[in-house]
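User: Before I run my own analysis I want an independent prediction to cross-check against. Here's the chain; please return only the structure tokens and, at the end, one sentence I can use as a sanity check.
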Amino acid sequence: MAGMSDLLTITDEALEKVLEVRSAEPEGDALALWVEISGQQAGAYTYLMEFRPVADLPADVVIDDSAGLAVAIPADNADNLRGAVLAFNGGMVMQNPNKPEPPPSPFADADLSGELAQRVITVINDEVNPQIAAHGGAARLAAIEGSIAYVELSGGCQGCGSAKATLQQGIEVIILDLVPEITEVVDVTDHASGVNPYA
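Assistant: Structure tokens:
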């Protein structure tokens, strides 16, 4: 494998493809491959990769040209790219072991001490969780606003294709039946970061 030591490894196939594309650029030998984390989607980073003239690179970049290709990474991206592999599999694929921090839950500071919240928590613990535990799942009350209960799923239910049905046909029915003050149950789970769906 070609590479950038422990920061970013470029497979031989990817290096060959990048060098081939660069050779078609005017003054290609003077261009670096710019690799930057541009955002995040579905629990993973997204990337901007393009050629930039080495002479125009800003001072705060990490540059490695040990593979015969200058690769430039903004210094503030280095830790989040450490250990990543740029591979070619019909197209460029970044395999990065680092994941972005999930956004903070808007319900992180929700007060669940009230009588209504405690009744919903009891129903979830006693009636809902024993049923979905068989699938490796669990539910918890995230918040209550008025007559709406916000529920977060985890384990096998997080990211599961059947989670919507589980919520609407199981969890919501049980909560609405046993706590009539609740008129709606809303799923606030980050399903994109689920790693162990059962269906």
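Sanity check: DSSP finds four helices and eleven strands in the chain.
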